[in-house]
Amino acid sequence: ETGVTQSPTHLIKTRGQQVTLRCSSQSGHNTVSWYQQALGQGPQFIFQYYREEENGRGNFPPRFSGLQFPNYSSELNVNALELDDSALYLCASSLGGQGGEKLFFGSGTQLSVL
Amino acid sequence: GENVEQHPSTLSVQEGDSAVIKCTYSDSASNYFPWYKQELGKGPQLIIDIRSNVGEKKDQRIAVTLNKTAKHFSLHITETQPEDSAVYFCAASKGAGNKLTFGGGTRVLVKP
After folding, report:
1. Cβ of B49 and A102 within 8 Å?
2. Statement: residue A51 has pLDDT above 90
């Protein structure tokens, strides 16, 4: 186990709704990254938060937004859900600076949009 | 941006045989190459990684090789066991603070 916890584990929403996913990083890690993994594909980078600031963003629209809190936990918010948003959403934590390239993933939140 | 391609997409081996998965990357600035194992219902688990200043790294039955000139890297699993059955992903990044770009994954099945 990596010590990265995500909630909820599963979620069903309808098109147009909004969703918030949560992540607690591994103890001592100050950086959180979010990835989207569609069925049968590799994870795709959404964005990264370092010390409560967004620190890099992938090719995702602005309706994907996030937050990082002083305790380094994080939220991913998705507005105006679309059917294609159905995927496994993975949170990964890492150290900033030296050794910070190692990412440790949680088990993910499986989001289904109907 | 970086593009990582992974082959094969599926691999079936007999228990005790070796398995090899190959990846190529496009961005010569990438300098960190991890491999992840993902079991059903779980997140990816880091199993081994290599930095661009090293050509080979080994950890028990798992080894990774890197050819910077050709921009490809490979995962080798020896003496495969049924518990090695999973989906394996290669990835590349430019180091700390940079995103990982993943390959499409290889589904490995080890037959007893």
Report:
1. yes
2. no
- The reply to whether residue B102 touches residue A33, judged by beta carbons under 8 angstroms, is no
CA atoms of B34 and B41, how far apart (whole Å)? 21
A19 vs A76: CA distance, rounded Å: 8
Chain A residues within 8 A of B91 when measuring between CB atoms: 42
pLDDT digits (tens, 9 = 90+) for B3-34: 999 999 999 999 999 999 999 999 999 999 99
Extended beta strands in A14-108, E state: 19-24, 31-37, 44-50, 53-57, 64-68, 74-78, 87-94, 104-105
Spatial distance between the Cα atoms of B64 and B22, rounded to a whole number of angstroms = 10
Calpha distance A69→A23 (Å, rounded): 10
In angstroms, the separation between the Cα of residue B22 and the nearest Cα of chain A is 15
User: H helices then E strands: how many in chain A?
Assistant: 0, 11
Asked if A103 contacts B34 with a C-beta cutoff of 8 angstroms, the reply is yes
- A75 pLDDT band, cuts 50/70/90, is very high
Put the strands of the sheet holding A64-68 in their side by side order: A5-7, A19-24, A74-78, A64-68
Residues A55-73: what's their mean pLDDT?
Answer: 94
Of A73, A104, A105, A103, which Cα lies nearest the Cα of A88? A105
Of A97 and B96, more confident: B96
| pLDDT tens profile B58-68 | 999 999 999 99
